[in-house]
């Protein structure tokens, strides 16, 4: 393993620890009424995970950070923390609702009982419902130009809504047992997973007041990695074992859900992920050396084994 | 009935029709993928209701509208429409989730099957989940100063979150069969119903770029009517018949939920509502004659029979 790769993995785990602390501070404390709801919100969000979305915020911010900034350094860091926390809250709420009996009916997540098992269904529903507006509240607190907050709000709202994550979930539900075209599958994944990954990259740029050309480069990058993320998920669903995944492998295939692997075959799916990987790296070229962390994130997403 | 009261009821039903058209235009069309989700979202939001929250937006805007505004009239109207649509979307989403089997398990709302009955539980869950970010997207599109959009975002986010509507729902769930103090009951209602009514009034002011003193007057007014709304709901729960209510009366009392009537008795609860009514009207004095519609809304909320 090269020095760069070691540095990247140290950076990534450092960011995961950092955002965990930020989230622990930002979430309502358990003593605040309604205590049970607040306990459920904290349980939903805290306790790890790879924090890929938060890391994308930080990496995108680093890629666009001006050498001489008018933003004081602590404000610049706080804006990134708020944006990173916002995308993690939206991701966490989606997992809580996704695990509910009327959706995937999962009882375990990251080796712990899911929220509706640990608490109850109504509390899990409300915890998810309450995490979503908190994310928008955090964006509104970013110490950046108001115009950029408004843009960030639109980006996150679209990523979360019916033409983003929630829409992708709905298509996923409808597609069980259906034969999807590759185009339709790609559309579903772009909404379900890609939209929030793309918003994470965009919000990182906005948090450091990135220029228009920088934001265009980010956008091309994030479209490629958003899709690559899902292709690799489908590959891992059939190739990884449950210890690596932390969940039951082959579950999607067993549920008769269309995946890139069932659609293209394993080797072509891997090749497609490789192609998207290259497309993401090419998109970073205009950003120069400061995009090293974003390149690292692309490697991480495509080369991960779980 | 006085001429003023007739005018007010004409205004109110006109606004209800208007916001219905605005919402029909703003919501994703049914043909757009995912069609089933979009159908469920439209079913959740459209089809009437008193539109009290939208009316509060418009009435508050009228109370604060400058005689000579730098905002062109069409933009000023559109900002109000977007704010009114946003609060109606949040209200509609809360009803959809509230009706779910794990919450109140209601099968009828306004005489129609609830969303999870008409569609299915997963679709109802996702429809609610997708309505919430759409509300924030609409606020971000208001043609007003970005600083005011940011403030509106914070107001709506807090009204919807764990220290607002979702928090009130959680306390409500926990309070079944409990003896609450009046203070605790008031806190629950302030969160569950009052917070969004208050945000509606605040957003109306922001949509027309109200001054600080105007926004302070709005805030005092809305705190009083937010609470009055719930006291009257509790009174109607025991005094109205089901044709008036459009739902089963006595349901809260039967569910052993604490209400203002069970806590204070019927006559004192009515007297308390009257006191809040007077407090709301007093708060409007600094706004002068332009606050007539807000006064009408206070009368409407306290004197309604359903």
Largest sheet of chain A: 2 strands, antiparallel
DSSP, total strands of chain A:
2
- Could you give the order of the helices and strands of chain A? HHHHEEHHHHHHHHHHH
State the end-to-end distance of chain A.
Answer: 18 Å
Number of domains as seen in the coordinates of chain A: 1
Low-confidence stretches of chain A: none
What value does the average pLDDT of chain A take? 91
What is the CATH C-level name of chain A?
Mainly Alpha
For the biggest β-sheet of chain A, the strand order reads: 1-2
The outline of chain A comes out as globular
Helices and strands of chain A: which structural class?
Answer: mainly alpha
Task: State the largest interface.
Answer: A-B, 54 and 54 residues
Summarize the structure.
The first copy, chain A, is an all-alpha fold and 306 residues long.
What does this molecule look like?
- Two copies of one chain form a homodimer.
- By secondary structure, chain A is mainly α.
- Chain A has a single domain (3-303), classed as Farnesyl Diphosphate Synthase.
- Chain A contains 15 helices and two strands.
- Chain A has helices at residues 3-26, 35-45, 52-64, 73-98, 115-118, 121-140, 146-160, 165-175, 182-207, 212-239, 242-245, 251-254, 260-264, 266-284, 292-303; strands at residues 108-109, 112-113.
- The radius of gyration of chain A is 19 Å and the shape is globular.
- The two termini of chain A are 18 Å apart.
- Chains A and B meet through α2, α6, α7 and α8 of A and α2, α6, α7 and α8 of B.
